[in-house]
Amino acid sequence: MMTTAEIIRFASAEGFTKEHAKDIVHRQVHEMLSVLTDMDEEEATKRVLVNIGYYTGYLDHATADRIMELFDTEHPMFGRSHPTQAEALAIGIAWGKRSKEKEGKLF
Q: Under a CB-based contact definition with an 8 Å cutoff, are residues 16 and 70 in contact?
């Protein structure tokens, strides 16, 4: 399997297309399924795309936008937005609070 960093490096190359992205996702999913036999294709695809989306949070905005468009994904917390550090912190805190409320736990 390719690491997410390797996927981003390939996807950042000139001439990389949505078809290339689909091929990478397809190969990643099938490699994942060959190891994780209790996972279905839908879940494996979701995990691959969430990982790619998460990684876009570390990229400059133009590159992140291009990667999200190529792979038809988004950052799992920020969507396709590019929050400031303060906004990202607020989003993360709110996300954590919602998660705790769903679980019924305080800590």
A: yes
